[in-house]
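Notes from hallway chat w/ T.B., transcribed later so I don't forget. T.B. wanted the structure written out for a chain they're using in a teaching module, and asked if we could keep both sequence and structure tokens in one place. Agreed to drop them here.
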Amino acid sequence: MFDRFIGIDYSGAETPTSRLPGLRIYMAEREGIPIEVRPTPQPTPHWTRRELAAWLDERLEDGAPTIVGIDHGFSFPTRYFERHGLRHDWTAFLGDFCRHWPTDGAHVYVDFVRDGRVGRGWERAGEPRWKRLTEIRARSAKSVFQFEGQGTVAKSTHAGLPWLARMRERHAGRVHFWPFDGWTPPPGRSVVAEVYPSLWNREWPRGERTTDQHDAWSAAEWMRRADRLGALSEYFMPELSAQDKNTAAIEGWILGLR
């Protein structure tokens, strides 16, 4: 289905212009293992979130069918929509979130919004006990509202959603954001999906890679191998009841969960 596979281990630390060792990109072609991509011409291996977004835009515009797996939540539990009276519409959700959580601002930490110094995050809060259906299915996945503790994704989710909104606006109709644009991507269309590297990172030895590097590598390699085996299309259609599928179409789903 794809010519190129990109795995991204995301980080919600510091600001969008901070160079973050936890922000890693690995990319593979059909016949080769993933290789780390580093910012150029910077003499550092560390990306900023702003740089990553610009780099990803270029990849999605060059015409090669590409699948991008990003390690942060793409949406929130339905209880969040109910609490705040929001329509069950992902595009509307992203716009509403960005108005309250402007975490793509040049000098904005996620904690600045949490503390009320920037934005209106207090008007769009959730509970750490709330989980999306996909997180329940994954078992070990944490809530997108759990900010404290090891393995949490709340900061990366709250930092990443505005960039996801920008990407969607820029590539509307040309890039498939799964599953919000439908469970089956059109042939030849690039896809952006949520991944959870813990599903696969134990399948291959880490070697000299850091944990963040290995997570990004594992996401890219799993997608590449699944596509070569012709199995990736099956993962685009997880085994869900009609009711659960409707819920997941609002909350999002982790690619790789059946």
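Follow-up for T.B.: Residues 211-228 form the longest helix (18 residues). Might be a good example for the class.
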